[in-house]
Design brief:
The chain is α+β, with helices and mostly antiparallel strands. The chain contains five helices and ten strands. It has one domain: Glutaredoxin (3-Layer(aba) Sandwich).
């Protein structure tokens, strides 16, 4: 198991969160490309809708390079019930290996990969998911958390 990289970022309300805030808790840390786009909205809404089951198992935190203002609008528009962190300089995204070359309509650029990490109460990454399916991912996370926590 490897130690999760630390972070200190603002949420959609301007409050700073760090990895240390989640010590002693299970954490689902997910990275996504952009607020209010089709796949990212599906993924966020799946986490929102699974919140009752997830809330008993872990905290959920989403991170993208969008601004605090953008996150606030996104969270309010879709009634998101978890924390979104702004990483405009993509330092945390890079620390988790989620800043990757991408292609869109023949153009290459660097952007955020859709990746998720389950972090245990001691701050270690116990499971990682790369390039996830935004529609089914939340259900997979719930099942894996139950297995990891042996409920």
């Amino acid at each position: 198991m490897k130690q999760a990289p630390g972070f200190s970022l603002e949420d959609q309300n301007g409050k700073v969160h760090s990895l240390n805030d989640y010590t002693g808790k299970w954490l689902v840390l997910y990275f996504y490309p952009k607020d209010d786009t089709s796949g990212c909205t599906k993924e966020a809404c799946a986490f929102r809708d699974g919140r009752e089951a997830l809330g008993k198992l872990a905290e959920v935190v989403g991170i993208s390079k969008d601004s605090v203002t953008s996150h606030k609008k996104f969270a309010e528009k879709y009634h998101l019930n978890f924390t979104l962190l702004a990483d405009p300089e993509h330092k945390t995204i890079e620390a988790y290996g989620s800043w990757q070359p991408k292609k869109f309509m023949g153009r290459e650029y660097l952007g955020t990969n859709r990746d998720t990490f389950i972090i245990n109460p001691a701050g270690h990454i116990v499971k990682e998911y790369r390039g996830v399916d935004p529609k089914t991912h939340a259900l997979q996370i719930i099942a894996d958390l139950k297995s990891l926590q042996r409920f």
